[in-house]
Superfamily I DNA helicase (Mycetohabitans rhizoxinica), 1190 residues
Amino acid sequence: MAQFFRSASYALTCTGIMPPQQERPGCHGRHHDIASSSPSSCLSSLRAPPRILARQALNNTNDEPLRVLRFWRDLKSSYSNRSDGKENTAHIKVSTLRRRGPQATLPWHRKEFAPTKQYAFLHAVYVGVADVEDLARLMLRGIVPADDLSEREVQRMSGQGWLAAFVANERGVPLPYSYLAASFAHGVDAFRETGTLDNINARLQRAQEEFAQRCHRLAPTNGRNESTASLSGTPLRWEDLETERDVVCALLGEDAKQAALDWRVVVRTSRIKRSKLKDNQEATTEFLNSFYLDDLDRLIDQAEKQQPFGAALTRYLGAAIKPEERMDVLTEHATMAQLVSAARLPSARWPTPSKYPLVLAQQAAVAQVLHTLSPDSGILGVNGPPGTGKTTLLCDVIADIVTARARRIAALDKPATLFDKPVQMAGMKFSPLKRAVIDGTSIVVTSNNNNAVTNITQALPARAKIGREFEPAAYFDEVIREIFCAQKVFDDEGQPIEGWGVIAAALGNASNRRSFAAGFFRDDRKVKRPTSTADTAIHAPDNGDDDDAKGTTTTDAATPRDTLCDDRPSTMKQILEAADQDYPCYQAEWETAKRAFLETHAEVEKQRAVLVAAEQAARELDRSRVQWETLEASLQSATDTLAASEQALAALREQQTDLRALMHSHQAVLAQCKATYLPSLWDRLMRWLGRETPRMIARRHALEAPTRAMSETSTALSALSRDIAQREAAVQRERERHQAISRELAALMLQRQVHQQALDAGYAIGAKHFPDDAFWSLPSETRHRASIAVSPALDHLRARLFLHAIELHRATILANAGKFIGNLRVVHGMLTNTLQDKLLADQRPLLWDVLFFVVPVVSTTLASFDRLFVGMGQDSLGWLLIDEAGQATPQSVAGAIWRSRRAVIVGDPLQVEPVFTVPLRVTQALRCRHQVDPAWSPADESAQTLADRITPFGSWVSKSAQYTGSETRTWTGMPLRTHRRCDDPMFSVANRIAYANQMVQGRVDEAGQPLPTPFSCTLGDSAWFDVASTRVHHPVSDDELDVLRQCLTMLRREPAHGEDNKPARVYVISPLRKVANACGDLVRRGKFEGIEVGTVHTFQGKEADVVFLVLGTAPGQQGAKARNWVTGRPNLLNVAITRAKCRLYVIGDAQQWGGLDYASELYAALAVVRLPSNTQPCGSAEDTPLLFDA
């Protein structure tokens, strides 16, 4: 066990009890809530600016991943274990007992739990049960006696915790090695004794051995075989249970001994068929194992040995991407255009109706996930605000992964070449799948939120998830009906949900594994209809901390299926046995399926090539448009210049003609003068003698002027001729330039015609937009509601391709029916744990290959991950899809990412934060001890924020200075921004307070205006019911409860409904746990049926038509801390508001809440109905005064 603190004095320094001698790197951060929790806290020093250089030094240290892992492990050792608080079912009863309470009789002494020949009982016993808040306070005071929890800590610590837990048989005799003490109690004791958390595991082991001694039982020689426990021994008494509580309580110190807490015992009793008793004993003890610790120990050991992690975990534990290297796809259009290019369009999609394609941001996220991770390994974050289509995105990713594997199958010559040479496994023949086909194609969906897991793995196989245009789609649909029956997945009428195929398996805890195996590969054909909807609750939830506590019952492989009207085989085993009898037929069917897949794939590629060409043409048209405009301007200029030059040349030539005429005139005058003064013989004789006669003198004078004029004209004509020659050369050059530009323009015109034809071809097959200048000039809202470079025809083909891929899988399985029977028999044994130690560790991956081939998607909660995939090592899983990752602590996903080559982290840091039960002072001290940057602390970070920080493509979300005091920005991963759930004002308020108005409303009319959901409610439009509370037991307001009762009564008399006239789904939500509990009591006492009640955390990932948000708190200072906690961040109000699809009714004191951060936006957006407070409590629901008539 890693050290908790190097020394007690250093730990006390970090917690502020002793003055620090010097500052240490890593002790500075942004935990402002922690700083305000205590004046003496060391966290007050965190208010100073962080030491940037120290932080950079930490980030550059090679051993930072190891220090982070050790920090996480020590934190996990400090968690308060949560007890099972699930409601009773037909086979499970949860009893909360107090020795002096009305139900003091221990379950094993009750007649209702008396064993029979057919049934036995197992009791999961939790002792020292108290509110997690109280246990955390005891832990904190065990380290820092004078300290207390802050309001933020109190509100984050929901539920019950326990000091020790173990399993007792039907007589109340404990199974000694099922015991587990709370690790946080031993951590406190270890710190007080040694100042470290060294050897906590050894302490827990020793505590188990001491429990065995107290039970007068010795550990079996095989170590942990609880199933060998007999019915002998002394049943537990109240004295024994209190002794067990006191043993652990003593570890917490004197405060714990003296604490006047409401200590109780919770017993979860499971009725089990005796034939299944052994398996259930193992499952019952399994849930007591500490979640994540084994994985963290494994990773620490690997890091200490300096063995490299896989790419995904290496990036997860690596340094954040520098801000200048991040690309905001919402503002950088060229980047977004690259992401949504038709060349990156996945070849397949989920078969939703083709008229509902992915929109811009969804397209970018899916393309980036597949383009980045499919050819390689790594990790990528996706930011999904409420109602923006996270599940739709994951469905498309899954469809493409399955289709990629089908391409490998289609490359086989015949079905039998799917397998490698057979091997012996657990004494049975097993035929491994070829790595070239199966490698890297397994898909696991996981989350801390059980709703998120079931939403996906129940939605994928449901026929409602398939568009009608793709009927009849079927992939062993008879088997999924059996599985839904076995796992009790029923609709509102208590009937199994109609499924289309075994596309996903909800596994995780032991109960889910067995119920799935029973419906998937069961031999018996018993037919029995469920007795009532009350006994057919959703299959055992695979919830976080109490996850495998639900695995304590199997009820004989769960509920059998209803009577069917046909005689089709109902399990895979029977289907395969039938197929094995008709081997030739299924070989031919495989060839047909292969041919259909390849033909469809070729058609998809053909149409995609049209879109790729159209997109390229659109870009070329954008680029050539400028060139075209430039050439046109040049041509016009050349034309104008040429015309002017030719006009000038013509003028010169006209001038030349005139000069030539003048020259002829001068020549005529000269000739006439010469003729007039023709010399006589005498004149010539005298000229010969050198004398000039008067006649010759007159002749000379007469010829001077015309001779001079002719000379001048000749000179001018010569000059003009030279000018004309030069101008003619220039005109020729200009004419040639004009011709060249004309030719270039004509060639460009031909190119643009070709590009336009390619673009028109894209439009012709139905595409509406391409990432060109015209698209980016559209308003942002229009762009985000649009789809790029896709068409309904191609989307239909892509969905068909996925269905052909599924059919090729089905044909491959049936064509190899004999081998799959043997293989799935071993898989069945692995899931039901009947093979136990017969399977070697290196054999389990081969079994998972087979299951993932038949059932492409498996789901589990993070808490069950390591037990479900025991034996699966680093990079053994192909794809990890983590949903609602904003609710997952950073350390909870480490083991899952370690096992996976590729991880897609989907969530929203602006919704519900992780449940965190370690006092913040303890967290801070541990962080200081390990010298870890605050960015790794689950006090303020989640798996989502850690994934976002290493995702280069994403977006900045600004936080207004109105709430934070200064403009701040948060980096998120690939953003989804088109919201399709809520009407206004819910959408607009959430968009303003959490997302800086980046989201756009997806449900609009043709004019782009919001399209409200047709809905009728007697309470009217969404409103704030303003109640001035006078009767308050902080934080519960009886006046607000009266208003809620009145509202629910009105809805019972006149149910709200939509166009289908079905009663609306109604939630009652409060951000405060005690208020939610009071609302739940009101609903139960008033017998308001169909109303779900809980805290905001309860409803993450869910939606309802009508939501009541009950705020609570006492007026004034008494309730100020709680109100400030609720409105300190937008998260809680954001989630609460966006659960409501059609109507939101806020019940609370507007004077107390209306001016607070974030709540003020809600108050301003809602109509305010002011109601008087009642002075007397109300009786029954029907007697509630008509508050709205007052």
Observations:
- The chain has a mean pLDDT of 84.
